[in-house]
Specification:
8-stranded antiparallel β-sheet, single chain, mainly beta
């Protein structure tokens, strides 16, 4: 994509149809496409490391990494060529880093996670609810209806995958996934298919709502990120070395 050449990309989100695509990066402008990635438009600089969007792509959220820890929305519903930017949440008291954001397919559930195990959730137009979990939140993913949620506790060798099946009310360890240096996790819209990568390890996939996990890659790499399609059939994994990505996209695996 020529319009993204020489631009940093920390995270990317794409709508179900592929029409809407948005990238974010620390100290870089948000860049969005409304024409299947043919061209990208620069928005406000948000210092963001995470972006998520509804299934149709018309409503998007992103977290700010600075001392304010704000969550913003880009709303394309009125005019796809002129999205409205608004601040929708700020942790109180101020928390420095928004590590991850997620939104349900229909936009009813919005989640932002912070370091120190802090999580904020909004349902519909209700007030945001702040909670602090008993474990850290390094990575996060949520199913399309908001019910199933997966957390990577750290990115060290003792990292675990935690699962909630009740909209974040309670959490359990997915012991069958093992303790690894987990780097990224994603989940299908239904919650049935989950995928995760660990550094100097393999791609791991669950096809039964996290009950069991199977190794899918034949070679251990410095995997850094992974995404799964909404129906769980297709996955794209990225290999990273140290602090930069040297292959994008990475190998593609199917989970069926």
């Amino acid at each position: 994509v020529n319009s993204l050449d020489n631009n940093s990309c920390q995270d990317i989100a794409i709508s179900s149809s592929g029409k809407f695509q948005t990238t974010v990066a620390y100290n870089r402008a948000v860049r969005y496409s409304v024409n299947y990635g043919l061209t990208f438009t620069s928005g406000d600089i948000m210092n963001s490391l995470s972006v998520a969007m509804t299934e149709d792509g018309l409503y998007q959220i992103m977290g700010e990494q600075d001392s304010a820890g704000r969550v913003y929305a880009l709303d394309f519903r009125s005019d796809i060529n002129n999205p409205v930017r608004t601040q929708i949440f700020q942790w109180s008291p101020t928390q420095s880093t928004v590590n991850n954001v997620a939104i349900s397919d229909n936009g009813q559930y919005k989640v932002a996670t912070y370091n120190g195990g802090r999580m904020a959730t909004q349902y519909a137009s209700n007030s945001w609810v702040q909670t602090t979990l008993s474990f850290n939140i390094s990575g996060f993913a949520m199913s399309g209806n908001g019910q199933y949620r997966v957390v990577i506790t750290t990115k060290t060798a003792t990292s675990e995958l935690k699962l909630s099946v009740d909209y974040g009310s309670s959490w359990s360890t997915m012991s069958s996934a093992g303790t690894r240096k987990w780097q990224a996790v994603d989940i299908s819209s239904s919650g049935q298919f989950m995928t995760a990568v660990a550094q100097d390890d393999y791609i791991w996939v669950s096809q039964d709502f996290g009950e069991t996990w199977q190794q899918k890659a034949d070679t251990d790499y410095k995997w850094s990120d992974i995404d799964i399609s909404r129906n769980g059939q297709y996955q794209t994994a990225v290999i990273g070395t140290d602090d930069y990505l040297n292959l994008a996209p990475g190998p593609i695996y199917t989970s069926n």
